[in-house]
Amino acid sequence: MTQVRELARRSVLRTMRQPAMIVPATLFPLILLAINSAGLDSATELPGFPTDSYLTFALAFAFMQGGVFAVIGTGQNLAEDTQSGFFNRLQLTPIRASALVAGQLAGTLALGTFQATTYITVGLAAGGHVEAGIPGAVVLIALATVITLAFGSIGLIAGMRASSPENVQGLFPVIFVFLFMSSMAMPRNLIENDWFRTIATYNPVSYMIEGLRSLLITGWDAEALALGFGCALAILAVALTVASRSLAERMART
Questions:
Q1: What's the predicted TM-score (pTM) here?
Q2: Distance separating alpha carbons of residues 209 and 218, to the nearest angstrom
Q3: Using CA atoms, how far apart are residues 117 and 144, in angstroms rounded to an integer?
Q4: Contacts (Cβ under 8 Å, ≥6 apart) of 180
Q5: 162 conformational bin, left if phi > 0, alpha if psi -120 to 50, beta if neither
Q6: Contact 61/209 with Cβ under 8 angstroms?
Q7: For the chain (length 254 residues), average pLDDT per consecutive 10?
């Protein structure tokens, strides 16, 4: 726990001292939210559309975009540590790989919580609503934080395998493909193209978005929340396992 605490403090302070990482990661999703809610508002007139406010519908996507930036931010920080020789110095200490993973994700957790709170505050101020009320807003932030940690764990894997921080940025368009090939812009039952609907159905991102969206639009939907948390926790577990093994190999003492 001492190792986790010290590494977590370093990770959080490192994140707070990088406004160039915090500001774009928070503002970019809000800009896209404003553009999409203004340009696609007419979609609410479609028969069967779940709400008359596209802003509320699109708000869930802002939380998912925060997760994408977690991949890049976490991966870049880890790649910088590898490049600077930080891990080589840690090999001289009795530190555990699990403590290193937990410590690295502390900064991601802090940023994800800040982003989720900002998005829900701005969304409500702009006219959106949370059908599940204040308790639903708390669960919304919790789910968004788990999603951010899941994507941040993927960033750990990328950071360990990348030769430089710049290489991690190449994942950005790849991750965005998964976002756009989901139910982010339209409910799956209203997607007319069969191939697109099939991809969106098998895409776990759809279920995480729909879990977030259920709290905003439906209220308390146990199935949507179970699928949202389930997909996020599954990705988190797999990514943490792979990241821990990669770090253990990297930290192997010779």
A1: 0.84
A2: 13
A3: 10
A4: none
A5: beta
A6: yes
A7: 76 77 82 82 80 84 81 75 74 72 79 85 85 88 88 80 68 77 84 86 90 89 92 90 76 54
